[in-house]
Design goal:
There is one protein chain. The protein is globular and about 55 Å long. It is an alpha/beta fold and 427 residues long. The longest helix has 19 residues. The chain has one domain: TIM Barrel (Alpha-Beta Barrel). The chain is built from 15 helices and eleven strands. The strands form two sheets. Strands 3-4-6-7-8-9-10-11 form an eight-stranded parallel beta barrel, surrounded by five helices. The chain has a two-stranded antiparallel ribbon with strand order 1-2. Helices cover 35% and strands 12% of the residues.
């Protein structure tokens, strides 16, 4: 196993990465239609697997998001929220419905009021709408709903044909996205994300080259549900409601099982990602969040770590930033969130500032870092800079907990959470 040194100084970073000495740009507001994001820091959608059986935010959900609210991010990207019961990734995943909408509304109100009281501004809050597809486990055991059989995941034991969703089933999902978006707007969210990343259903459809029928093969077919969902949401919600999407610019798998394959391992072809971004912008999407890979199978593509096995973490970061830049160029009317900054520790803020300064993207996205260091935005905005003693160690334990059907969080720094969980389990 290779181990990779985390950067401590600018000279530790590859020259290919942007770098800004002045972090003032991260404090600048950003207009997004009729709304304003108070600063350039986005807390990425990080699942807590701590909702109720009906899909409502529970006590630990509230705790996590109030920590984020106090932390001062200008944009809080709320975690994956299922649009249908069978599309939940675990029995405690969020599910926005008529039954749970009021609980969501109370949480959104609290997020905004707490951030206003602590930091003097309200964050923009986006709800990520999802169908887990291949990764669905609504009762805690695998219940996959797949676009097509994928040997790189299924090996020599392919899933039965009954797991492959029909065209008729897919035809009905755009309305489900629209209904969820209307409920999200009623709950006080500022917008919704039509999630198409990390191998979930819309993401898998984007690489469904071998699927037959209306949702496979051609670009028009593979994007059919994605774009139909965007159009349905736009029609269902008010004009000032933000349309967003977090989507994969590159899957990291060879054709025909992955989008963006150039024929050279690890080197993406971003042509189709740019086309998708342009087509989303033409349909009214104004906020794009660029990611890559799949955390279930090739997590190092989108979550570089000190314990990387395949390649240096910087290569992952270079790819992620290149994807964000390609999308920015292809859809100049949109605002773009980059990903992949957590590995770089305190220098993540400098790389983000440099990228924004150079026009490569608009917002700096932090994911795992928010579990270990929920106050990072506030420290940057106050001019204190990121504090080394709070940084994510990129150990991956938060993801391991999620895979083990436990509540993910930072096992190093969030002792309060794990004391509470221990007491719950052991009485």
């Amino acid at each position: 196993m290779n181990t990779w040194k985390r950067p401590m100084r600018r000279e530790d970073l590859p020259a290919s990465l942007p770098f800004g000495e002045n972090l003032e740009i991260l404090k600048m507001p950003l207009a997004l239609g009729k709304k304003t994001i108070p600063n350039r820091i986005c807390y990425q959608p990080m699942e807590g697997c701590d909702g109720t059986a009906t899909g409502a935010p529970d006590e630990l959900t509230h705790r996590r998001y109030l920590r984020f609210a106090k932390g001062g991010a200008g944009l809080i990207w709320f975690e994956a929220t299922a649009i249908v019961p069978e599309g939940r990734a675990n029995p405690r995943q969020m599910y926005l419905s008529e039954e749970t909408a009021d609980v969501f509304a109370a949480l959104v109100r609290d997020i905004k009021s707490v951030c206003l009281a602590e930091n003097g501004y309200e964050p923009v809050v986006i709800c990520q709408l999802t169908h887990s597809g291949r990764w669905s486990k609504p009762q805690g055991t695998p219940a996959p709903l797949i676009a097509y059989n994928k040997p790189i995941f299924e090996g020599d034991d392919p899933l039965p044909a009954s797991c492959i969703v029909s065209d008729d089933y897919l035809d009905g999902l755009a309305k489900k996205y629209a209904l969820s978006a209307k409920l999200a707007q009623r709950a006080g969210f500022d917008g919704v994300d039509i999630k198409a990343c990390h191998g979930y259903l819309l993401s898998e459809l984007l690489n469904a080259y071998t699927r037959e029928g209306r949702y496979g093969g051609s670009y028009e077919n593979r994007t059919r549900l994605f774009f139909s969902a965007v159009e349905a949401v736009k029609k269902a919600c008010s004009p000032d409601f933000i349309l967003a999407s977090r989507f994969n610019a590159y899957d990291g798998y060879a054709y025909p099982y992955g989008m963006g394959d150039s024929g050279t391992p690890g080197v993406p072809d971003l042509t189709e990602a740019a086309r998708i971004a342009s087509d989303l912008a033409a349909r009214g999407v104004t906020l794009l969040n660029v990611t890559m890979g799949c955390p279930y199978t090739n997590h190092e593509v989108n979550r570089p770590t000190s314990f990387a096995k395949e390649e240096a973490p910087y290569r992952s970061i270079e790819r992620m930033l290149a994807g964000a830049e390609a999308v920015t160029k292809a859809a100049p009317g949109t605002q773009v969130v980059c990903s992949g900054l957590s590995f770089m520790g305190t220098l993540g803020a400098n790389v983000a500032a440099g990228g924004i300064e150079e026009g490569k993207f608009s917002l700096a996205g932090f994911g795992r870092q928010t579990f270990s260091y929920p106050d990072l935005a506030r420290d940057i905005v106050k001019g204190e800079g990121m504090k080394p003693g709070k940084l994510c160690l990129t150990c991956g334990k938060c993801t391991e907990l999620m895979r083990a059907k436990q509540t993910p969080g930072c096992v190093i720094y969030d002792r309060e959470l794990y004391t509470a969980l221990y007491n719950e389990i052991h009485g």
